[in-house]
Each structure stands twice: as C-alpha cells, then as structure tokens.
Design brief:
three-stranded antiparallel sheet; 7 helices; binds 2-amino-2-deoxy-6-O-phosphono-alpha-D-glucopyranose; alpha/beta; 243 residues; seven-stranded parallel sheet
C-alpha cells in the first residue's frame, strides 16, 4: 500500500486526476472502475478540464461503476447513473456503450446484480478508483461484508444513510436503504486500486485501513492484501496516522 499525503482536497484532486490521466494516456483502451460520492467530484472536474485543454481521449476507455442505489428511477437526480453523467461522462468523449453501472431501478435486483458480476468476470479492471465511507466501507460493502463477496444486493447501515442524507435534502427517510454493489472480492480483482480520502471524518477509517487489524469489520482493510494500491490522503484524513 503506497500512501501519498497531500495538503488538502484541491491537491488530492489534482494528484488523483494526474494518476488517472497518465493511466489513460498509457493505455487508451484501459478499463476503469469508477466511484461516486463527494471525494471524486473535483478529480472528475480536473479530468474534464484536461480533456478540454489537452484532448486526452476516452473513446476507447471502458468503465464499470462500483454501485447504485436500489429503488430510484435511473434518471433520478441522486442515482449514481446521473452523478456519473453529470460529473464526467457528459463532458468527455467516452462512448456510452462502454459505460457500465448496475441498474437499481429494475424489478429483479438480484438478477441485475448477477448480470453485473457476470460482466465483471469477463473483464479485468485495470484501475479501480475508490472512496471510503466513514465506517470503512468501499463501494457499499458495509462492515461485516465478506472479503470474498461478489456483486450483490446490500443493505446500507444507519451510519451510511446518515452520511448520505446530505444529498437527499438532509432527510434520512429519502435515502434508499439498499443498493447493488460490487463486492470486496470483485474490487480485489482489479489490477490496481486508487483510493482517495479527504477530511477529518475519514481519519479513523484511514487509520484502521492503514495501521489496524485486517478485518471484515473494516472492509477497506482488505486492500492491505492487494499488491498494487495507492492511497491519496489529505492532512485531515491522515491526521491519526502514526507513521
Ligand atoms: C458512498 C459510496 C462510496 C463512497 C463513500 C464515501 O456511500 N457508496 O462509493 O466512496 O460513500 O462518500 P464520500 O466521498 O461522499 O465521502
């Protein structure tokens, strides 16, 4: 696990964007695993800016997103489908047919999770971007998720519902209680992982992930068993690290 410490969210977003851009330039047909949440928003802005200024092309790039809420129509403003289009896909030259997200609006969500996992089995994610939940979740794999887990229907913990209520008018009752998420096992199949974390509310999860016990109680700690992980953390998120 390689830790890159930066000053703040701005620098984190620049450093992470540079890693992504370099990877795309090196392999224009790269398969990316993408994430949502507040953490990558500025990084995606930087990718869009770079695409406009330097014409970095995503024409041959394929993407697979980590997760999606269950129960919202796909075009609802808080789906990860909408997030990805608004923050990235609508502003770069990626081919819509190369873009993949689980669809949480279908009736048979279990079949959808299986369909998504079957697609992942047929592909190799070259670079997987991750954020981290305050409780150490990755994707929507909450504490207790199996390290071998594959894409599945999952329940959100009260802590995650509370953390995500800010996107739903601050109202926890509006936050979906379930999602389809790539499993920790699916995530671990990626060739390389880039995890970004910013802010003091991530400090405990980062400390555990980097220095604590490897345990299913902190899903992100599984990444210590992966041999190519880059973690970019700002000062606040790194504030509890002792080394
Ligand atoms: C969300 C997402 C995760 C994300 C995490 C942190 O619930 N499912 O993929 O990494 O929580 O979100 P944020 O970056 O907004 O803190």
């Amino acid at each position: 696990m390689k830790i890159i410490r930066v000053k703040d969210y701005d620098e984190l977003s620049r450093v992470a964007a540079d890693i992504m851009i370099e990877a795309v330039k090196e392999n224009p047909e790269i398969t990316l695993g993408l994430a949502t949440g507040g953490s990558p928003v500025q990084m995606y802005k930087n990718l869009v800016e770079d695409h406009k200024e330097n014409q970095t092309s995503y024409k041959g790039v394929k993407s697979y997103n980590l997760d999606e809420y269950i129960g919202l129509p796909q075009t609802h403003e808080q789906t990860y489908y909408t997030f990805m289009h608004k923050n990235l896909f609508d502003h770069i030259d990626i081919d819509e047919k190369n873009v993949h997200l689980p669809d949480g609006s279908v009736e048979d969500v279990k079949a959808e999770a299986d369909r998504y996992e079957a697609m992942l089995k047929d592909t190799v994610i070259d670079l997987q971007l991750l954020g981290i939940g305050t409780n150490g979740h990755i994707g929507f794999n909450e504490p207790g998720s199996s390290f071998e887990g594959l894409t599945d229907v999952v329940s959100l913990t009260p802590e995650t519902i509370e953390a995500n209520a800010r996107y739903f008018e601050g109202n926890e009752d509006l936050v979906p209680t379930e999602a389809i998420s790539m499993g920790v096992g699916s995530i671990m199949n990626a060739k390389k992982v880039l995890l970004i974390a910013s802010g003091a509310n991530k400090a405990e999860a980062i400390k555990w992930m980097v220095e604590g016990e490897i345990s299913e109680e902190l899903p992100a700690s599984a990444l210590r068993n992966h041999d190519d992980v880059i973690v970019v953390v700002d000062e606040d998120a790194a504030s509890l690290l002792t080394k």
